[in-house]
């Protein structure tokens, strides 16, 4: 954690901007600024964006927290929990780089450990996973980590956050070649309003626990299938923070049914403990057997 000269209170600017950075440096990008309703991203715009790959094929989005740690959604591992089968690719604008693109393969990292949140039961809440990579990521202008915070109070009701991914651009319409990363600006929707929107629709889901909503009430801007695990990020005074992880939704971009994300801040302490001591889960299991 970074030092702050005052004693910050949760929700204060100092708390969110300085003390709350679990890892440094983070949240920088060198490029200023189709997910549903989105546009093609520019190379380097979202340098923490990763492609989580099963046997080399894109499955989910992910985000870089540090040289050895990656954040994604727990439900991405329905098919396999064997780390050997998974890699994460960084620094590429396409999810399907050419076989002649050697740099893409140099920037593809083997997963060493997969840590699902212990409370995850196959569906949200607790739809969050941490990955420890087998080797350290090399930072470049195109590959940089994202910041996380223990409180998202400063980001409530923001209308200028972004979600990125290589998922479908419409319901049942996949991302066309050359499979360029998509970006779309969305609004953070508070839990009360989000529950109201869902209860006004045909799908009466309840938003609770660590869920946070983002999108537009009128629809048209949303994450979609294939974007799971990717980051929902907001800018604060020139630094970028990950607020959510793409988790689930009803269709894509439908009115009154915004996308639902895992609130990263509610798992800040779990993330910090794992990064500090990745052997902790095995130690706890061993202690329980004594």
From TrEMBL:
Pfam families: Trypsin (PF00089)
Boundaries of every Peptidase S1 domain copy: 35-276
UniProt keyword DNA-binding, yes or no: no
GO molecular function: serine-type endopeptidase activity
The keyword Disulfide bond appears for this protein: yes
Keywords: Disulfide bond, Hydrolase, Protease, Serine protease, Signal
Top-rank taxon: Eukaryota
CDD domains assigned to the protein according to its UniProt record, in alphabetical order: Tryp_SPc
Cross-referenced InterPro entries: Peptidase_S1_PA, Peptidase_S1_PA_chymotrypsin, Peptidase_S1A, Trypsin_dom, TRYPSIN_HIS, TRYPSIN_SER
Listed GO biological process terms: proteolysis
Name the UniProt record assigns to this protein: Serine protease 21
Organism: Sciurus vulgaris (Eurasian red squirrel)
């Amino acid at each position: 954690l970074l030092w702050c000269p005052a004693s910050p209170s949760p929700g204060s600017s100092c708390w969110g901007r300085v003390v709350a950075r679990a890892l440094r440096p983070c949240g920088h990008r060198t490029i200023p600024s189709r997910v549903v309703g989105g546009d093609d991203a520019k190379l380097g715009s979202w340098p923490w964006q990763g492609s989580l790959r099963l046997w080399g094929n894109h499955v989910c989005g992910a985000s870089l927290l540090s040289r050895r740690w990656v954040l994604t959604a727990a439900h991405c591992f329905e098919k396999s929990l064997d780390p050997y089968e998974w890699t994460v690719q960084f620094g590429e604008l396409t999810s399907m780089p050419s076989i002649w693109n050697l740099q893409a393969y140099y920037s593809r990292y083997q997963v060493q450990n997969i840590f699902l949140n212990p409370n995850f039961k196959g569906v949200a809440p607790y739809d969050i996973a941490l990955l420890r990579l087998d080797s350290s990521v090399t930072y470049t202008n195109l590959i940089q980590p994202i910041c996380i915070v223990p409180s998202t109070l400063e980001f409530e009701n923001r209308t200028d956050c972004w979600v990125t991914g290589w998922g479908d651009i419409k319901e049942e319409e996949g991302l066309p070649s050359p499979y360029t990363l998509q970006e779309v600006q969305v609004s953070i929707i508070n839990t009360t309003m989000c529950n109201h929107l869902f209860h006004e629709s045909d799908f009466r889901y309840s938003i609770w626990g660590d869920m946070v909503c983002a999108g537009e009430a009128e629809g048209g801007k949303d994450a979609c299938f294939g974007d799971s695990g990717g980051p929902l990020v907001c800018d604060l005074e020139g630094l970028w923070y990950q607020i959510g992880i793409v988790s689930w939704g009803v269709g894509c971009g439908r009115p009154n049914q915004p996308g639902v994300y895992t609130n990263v801040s509610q798992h800040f302490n779990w993330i910090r403990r794992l990064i500090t001591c990745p052997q902790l889960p095995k130690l706890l299991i061993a202690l329980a057997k004594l």
